[in-house]
Specification:
About 30% of the residues lie in helices and about 25% in strands. The structure holds 2-oxoglutaric acid (AKG).
């Protein structure tokens, strides 16, 4: 993989709106390879994970939204090569305007045919870190259309910061729908994305996704990065306590986010690509 050239207006647009869609971050052949390794890791992980075996109709709203498989890069060398690749880390670094980035975690988010909506939420509600410079890449591994659960953003919402103790739930959907309408925020989603296209959004950006009304799986891999040098904060809810022990094992409030699970994947000064 070579480098992806970000234009200045794309960076400006990301910082203003809190999200951007970049086309062909990786090419079709690479996306097909990425899909192969992610699917194999997902299958292995699903065999050990009971949630994915509960029938769709018996799950709650969060459970109906997607099947989730996390930190696949730690389980499979093929996934590791992609997730830790400096091409992605460089885009994250340039969008955020920081010196470098560390991986927070990856997750495959597969919305099944008939899968439910992903309620409006803020990702960073889950993350005990002392920076606003966090970003998620959301990359379909198959071509998708709007009706398959396209990621949908409330433009500019990242500038509001923390908006409350609202994990992904029916309540977050209701409260944030109202908030977005009251604040006259514009809502944006792509009509279609090809495998290898990717959206990037700030951790505080409000986002959601409609149900998957197609009859094929919406296969998506996400990777989250935080600015290199940021520190752990005192967790303010149980989700943050869980995140601290899972994604930053051994660290405590005040520590630099630099556990074994948080490698630097790109840095402007010392190129520390670990893939
Ligand atoms: O894929 C989805 O439906 C939601 C994804 C999401 O919330 C995220 O990547 O932050």
């Amino acid at each position: 993989m070579g480098e992806f050239q970000l234009a200045a207006d794309q960076i400006q647009s990301f910082r203003k709106n809190g999200h951007i869609c970049l086309r062909q971050v990786i090419g079709r052949a690479e996306a097909a390879e990425f899909r192969k390794v992610v699917n194999a890791a997902v299958q292995m992980h699903a065999a050990q994970n009971r949630d994915s075996q509960v029938p769709l109709k018996d799950r709650d709203t969060y459970g109906k939204a997607f099947l989730k498989h996390m930190n696949l890069w730690t389980m499979d060398n093929g996934v590791r090569e992609f997730v830790l690749h400096q091409r992605f880390g460089k885009i994250a670094t340039e969008l955020l305007g920081v010196d470098g980035v560390r991986v927070y975690h990856d997750q495959a988010l597969y919305k099944e045919p008939g899968g439910g909506l992903t309620p409006w939420h803020q990702d960073q509600y889950y993350w005990p870190v002392d920076t606003n410079n966090t970003v998620t890449m959301w990359m379909p591994l198959v071509d998708i259309t709007e009706d398959m659960g396209m990621l949908t953003f409330a433009s500019g919402s990242h500038t509001k910061g923390y908006l409350g103790t609202l994990p992904i739930s029916d309540e977050s959907e209701e409260v944030f729908n109202k908030y977005i309408a009251e604040n006259d925020m514009s809502i944006h989603c792509e009509k279609s994305m090809q495998a290898g296209d990717a959206t990037f959004h700030y951790g505080w950006n409000l986002h959601s996704a409609p149900p998957n009304s197609a009859n094929t799986m919406r296969e998506v891999i996400t990777v989250i990065w935080v600015a290199d040098g940021c520190r752990v904060t005192e967790p303010i809810n149980d989700n943050q306590r869980r995140d601290l022990s899972r994604w930053m094992p051994g660290l405590k409030p005040g520590d630099v986010v630099a556990s074994d699970l948080n490698p630097v994947t790109y840095h402007r000064n010392a190129n520390a690509c670990v893939s």
